[in-house]
Design goal:
Blueprint lengths: L7 E6 L3 E8 L2 E9 L15 E4 L2 E4 L3 H23 L4 E6 L3 H10 L8 E6 L5 H12 L1
Length: 141
C-alpha cells in the first residue's frame, strides 16, 4: 500500500518579497517569487515635510498614526496574497529575517483553512537561490 506524501512548501519572506519553494520527493524547486505591496518610505507628490509651527520654532507633526495605518493595510494585503498561494499544502516552513514571519504565522493560525496544516518557523538571513533550495530540502528531509 502506497502512502501519500504530504505536500510541503517552504516560504522565505521579508517585507519586500517572498519565495515559495516546493519540496516533493526530496527535491526542492522554486515555484514563485511574490512581490510585496508593502512600501517603505512613501512620499506622495506635493507632500511637504511633517513639521508644524509651534511658536517661533518648528516641531515634528504626528503623522505616525496615518503612516502606521497605511503600513498595516499593506501588510494585511501581503498576508492575504500569501494565504491564497499557501492553500492546499499539508506542511509549511516559514523562514526569513525579522518578525514578519511570526506575524504571518499568527494570521494563518487564526484561519480555519490552515487548522490541519503543520507550520514551522525558522529564522534565516537572506540566501542565494541555491542556498534557499538546500535549506528547504534539508528541513523537510
Amino acid at each position: 500500500m502506497e502512502t501519500k506524501e504530504n505536500k510541503k512548501l517552504g516560504v522565505w519572506m521579508d517585507q519586500s518579497h517572498a519565495f515559495l519553494i516546493s519540496c516533493e520527493n526530496h527535491q526542492a524547486s522554486l515555484l514563485e517569487e511574490v512581490e510585496s505591496p508593502v512600501e517603505s518610505m512613501v512620499r506622495y507628490p506635493g507632500e511637504t515635510d511633517s513639521k508644524i509651527r509651534v511658536g517661533s520654532t518648528h516641531a515634528a507633526s504626528n503623522n505616525e498614526i496615518k503612516t502606521n495605518h497605511i503600513h498595516q493595510e499593506q501588510v494585511k494585503r501581503y498576508f492575504s496574497l500569501l494565504e491564497d498561494k499557501l492553500a492546499g499544502y499539508d506542511e509549511i516552513l516559514l523562514s526569513g529575517p525579522g518578525v514578519l514571519k511570526t506575524q504571518f504565522l499568527k494570521q494563518i493560525s487564526s484561519n480555519k483553512a490552515f487548522s490541519k496544516v503543520k507550520v514551522h518557523t525558522v529564522d534565516a538571513d537572506k540566501m542565494t537561490s541555491n542556498q534557499l533550495l538546500a535549506f528547504v530540502k534539508n528541513h523537510f528531509s
